[in-house]
Amino acid sequence: MNDIPETIHRLRHWLKTAIARLETKFPYAQASFSEQEGLAIMSNRQETRVSEIPSRRGITLAVHTGQFWAEVGASEVTEASIDASVTRLLERIPVESGGTPIDPGRPWSGDFHSEYRIDPRQIPLRDKIERLAEIRQVLTGGSPRVAAAFVRYGERIVRKVYVNRVKDLYQELLHVSSVPVVIVSDGRSTKTMHGGNGYQAGFEKIEYSREALETLVRESESLLDAGTIEPGIYEVVGGPGLAGVIAHEAFGHGVEADMFLKQRAKAVDYLGKPVASPLVNMIDSPLTKGYPGSYFFDDEGMPATDTHIIENGVLRNVLTDLRSASELGVPRSANGRREAFTNKVYARMTNTYFAPGESTRDAMIASVDRGLYMPHGSNGMEDPKNWGIQVESPFALEIRGGKLTGKVFAPVVITGFVPDLLNSISMVGNDLHLEGLGICQKGHKEQVPVAIGGPHLKMTARVG
Amino acid sequence: MIETIRAALDKQDRLSAWAISERQLRSTQLYEVFGKRESIRAVDATTYDVDLHVPVHLDGRERMGSIRIEIAPGETGIDTRVRRAIESASVHGNRPFTLPGGGMTYPDFQSADPDIVTNPWQVIDDIHESLREEAAKAPDIRISSTEVFVKYIRQRLVNSRGLDVSQDYTDCLWEIVLFHGRKPEESEFWSIFSRPQWRQLNIGEKFGVFAQHARNALVAQTPRSGNCPVVLTGDALEVLYQYMIHHASASARFTGSSLFEPGKPVLPDEPLGDRFTMYSNSVIPGGTYSRRFDPDGLPGGRVRIIHDGVLERFWATRQYAEYLGIEPTGAFTNIELPPGTRSWEELLQSDDRVILVEQFSTFDPQPVAGNYLGEIRVGYEYRADGSVVPLRGGSVTGNVVSGLTNACFCREMEIFQGYYGPRGVRFEEAQVAGL
Does domain A6-224 have CATH number 3.40.190.150? Predict the structure, then answer.
């Protein structure tokens, strides 16, 4: 099950040869290859769509000229095409002096495979389609107000090679995801919600309890009767999904070190200083197994490491790629990621979450006199320069006198100043849940898969 | 390569139809930080997407099993790949449909930028030079970083019904971050947008506008909470009407998630303001999604979908048009709205206040429900006394359906990415959360 394709062996040899040639001229060179293979299925009552996922297959050859990086990306992966790309770099890119030297890191070679129990490739397509149909039928039968329901399924094997003068690495990562979606209607308006999750795991993760699906239908229906919230400052209990969006947007993007070089991160002035309630601990962890942001090494050959971004409320560490770590003179973390060979590496998040505390969800709700419970997060946006934050939630449930009243508001959005929000966290839940359907963008582009999450949090926030 | 794939498909007698889409991308990229080159990249990528369709007999009915596979440039063993894919396609089936045939007439429309086609590095140098000139005019503004991606894409589509069409298009993406002031009183403005041709970026004009946003951000306030008229402009307009596009689609109708009926109003209540009209237009010069043909090979063009608040027709790809028994329009491309009756200045007048949102932090309205919300990244409050206060922070929340029930559009037309229409829309009531 852990055989490495022969093509990968050949490719590693070609890339090592390329590095040797490039370093006859340039002070530093690195090479990488990535591809993905898998299946996407969408099933609704009327049709089933099946397609192979785009392979995004290609190589990147990168050289540091002494002053800047020059890269070639190509979908053609043959010895001749790699040779031609090397020649192109050697002939067209000048060497310059005076820049920051690049550390190739410690010598390291190895082959790595993510863990799974059931290989989805061994499950017949017919069985997968039937599994999705079963899920869909539970959704459709959940209420007469269900206008449509569908389920998306994905399986993806990612293969990556990284080579420089001291490293020769290969990793194979298996991902699965499934997303049930329900659309409800009262004839006048339509509302929608989705469930599901994404994992670095096998087909064993593609299962749902009837209860979870029925909850999804119930929550969707509640949106048809939802009211508009009165804008204001509320005590808010947020579920792990909401906590995850806050973690990601607040001090995920804000500590990506390439933003420090651009002077776009206010966090540079707060390293070692309190930025949150002492109850707050926040981690970025590609080492956490089983989620979309998990890996053995990043796209610049750095071994996966955990980064404790916030420790007991104090901002401690930043997320780096090779370039930002070199220029800032800070330790490298394993956060150099690229969307594909068509894209550049940036400092990016992986699995980012708040660490759990000691409170229960029920105790948090019971402690709120007038406030809101937001079980889910949906979207958000960072503002590292000004520490503004936008966190969206599909709905909020009213809390009065420590109890849920059953009143629903939708949609809702939290905005505010990041330290105000994080300092307002007064209770941290003893649960921990990660959501792995997230796609993170740098600005509005450069997509990489991530997980976000945390425990329930109680905070004070501006809600609109 | 297309001929090699075609030869492999011709050997398969179980196939009822197929299509091959070849896409060749050349991308040239520049990254700069404080005027210093950080990185340059050159990318060449070719992909072959192959759609395979086979007849299947399921539950006593004739169906069509379909699958899409991707074949790599120079890939060997295509016969085996195709045979396996046919096996996969055979285990499920949808209602049959036909692919477009050859012999159709295509618009004489070219959006590709000849400069990008012939010399992308020169284009990057020209953009860089334009920026330098503009920055020199604004000594109080610093450019933190810029990214420029110049893309040239060649696409060829062939299918088993004799279709063989090609198109070239280009895209120039520009991301820029500007600073104004000095720490600790320093403000930022960030923008990212693209146009098919690099001169359509209008760097000179845009830089001036962006610089002013950066200056205003330094004195911006958070709005006060409450309901008030809101004017939306800029890139938000490209995605604002996703609800209309979703519910007016034949696929949504087919799958049961559309509320719209042909010949019936698209809003549940009689509108108090302007009535909504919407076109899908794939031949707008400067439109991000302008193309000669859609992904199935149907000719591009301008099609009215909603007229005076009434659904005129569903927009439909070939497949869903056949399912519903209607004429195909091709895939939805750029959204076009006709000009309104008021001036831009009139949109910004009020007895109390109007909030103009130039840029949200992120803006992603829900296509199914029509809800929208966003944090104000760049906004202005126009007050009855004529004063204008820059805004930053706080949020605007609403629903497109209720918004369009009392909305008006301005006369001035503008292109924002894949949107061509009035420069702004005013919703008489939206919810603002602030101080």
Answer: no
